Amino acid sequence: MAEMITLTASDGNEFAAWRAEPEGNPRGGLIILQEIFGLNQHIREVTEKFAAAGWLAVAPALFDRAKKDVELAYDADGVAVGRELKTATDAKALLDVAAALDSLAGAGKMGVVGYCWGGSLAWRAAAEIKGLAASVAYYGGDLPGLKELQPHCPVLAHFGAEDSAIPLDGVEAFKVAQPGVPVHIWPAGHGFNCDHRASFHAESAAEAGQLTEAFLSQHLA
To answer: Mean of the per-residue pLDDT values for the chain?
Structure first.
């Protein structure tokens, strides 16, 4: 079952979240963190796929602090608006991530999986939010610049070798600074996991998905 729910952050911000429940008892809880295009169909589908694999999953609408019901197109205009909304909400986004984590209480060990902006937030959450047992960051553009953060839980990172938004020298610097973080570089561009985007790379998405599932199973199940 999947439905839209309302959560409240510690500062009183009310925001929507897409919650998907597995059949039977959950293997653990997962927070799914959006790209800069909002809590759109793709992120809802990703959340439901994790639930189908046995996880209780919830995806917070992180743009709700600035604008409700955001679903942007994967084009230049969508990118421009998404970047503006990211700037407007980024500073307090982890308050909403923490509230999403609280909503998973009772599901077992909990982790976070983020994509694009959400990947950056997944890295920050690993360092700043207690209670996480695992974090997976897909093509998080802020990871190279935040390479000195110290995560409190195991982290797995995915990047694309052809990602013009995240130069490989930055990825290599992150690897040097974080030797304990498994970093996988796939023959693909930014957003390779999203089958709604032209940059979707099915083989890389499938293999990265298998590694992500194994990583989550190791640390959460």
So the answer is: 97
